[in-house]
């Protein structure tokens, strides 16, 4: 999708801080991290939201999440991690290319010190 910001990242047209990549999925730091290490997990194929994901694509997205969560845990040592996904404007979705948020949680604030 030519006007999709995440498709542009996937195509390498705009930069990102890449955390993980395989054939089907890319993960990169959120440009506006709510806490240190806030990461987005994104299928490379453009699908707007959860309603458009096939079970196969949902599996491809979710199967990499434990690896990424463990890498974040090792790198940043959060006390916990939220995993969430917004679908629809009313639910807080602002980028309409499906993505999962991995948000590390720290006992002392946002982790940036
Ligand atoms: P949503 O609100 O749709 O669930 O999440 C979209 C997320 O994408 C937001 O947290 C926002 O900060 C992030 N975002 C928007 N544009 C960019 C960008 O160009 N690069 C990166 N890395 N993240 C972005
Ligand atoms: Zn897209």
From TrEMBL:
It comes from Anoxybacillus flavithermus. GO terms for molecular function: catalytic activity. This is Histidine triad (HIT) nucleotide-binding protein. GO terms for biological process: nucleotide metabolic process. It comes from the Bacteria.
């Amino acid at each position: 999708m030519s006007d999709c910001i995440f498709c542009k990242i996937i195509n390498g047209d705009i930069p990102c801080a890449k955390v993980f990549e395989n054939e089907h999925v890319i993960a990169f730091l959120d440009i506006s991290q709510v806490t240190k290490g806030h990461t987005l997990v994104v299928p490379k194929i453009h699908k707007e939201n959860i309603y458009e994901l096939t079970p196969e694509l949902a599996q491809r997205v979710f199967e990499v999440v434990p690896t990424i969560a463990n890498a974040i845990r090792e790198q940043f040592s959060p006390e916990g991690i939220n995993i969430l996904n917004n679908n629809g404007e009313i639910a807080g979705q602002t980028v309409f290319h499906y993505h999962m948020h991995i948000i590390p949680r720290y006992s002392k604030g946002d982790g940036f010190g």
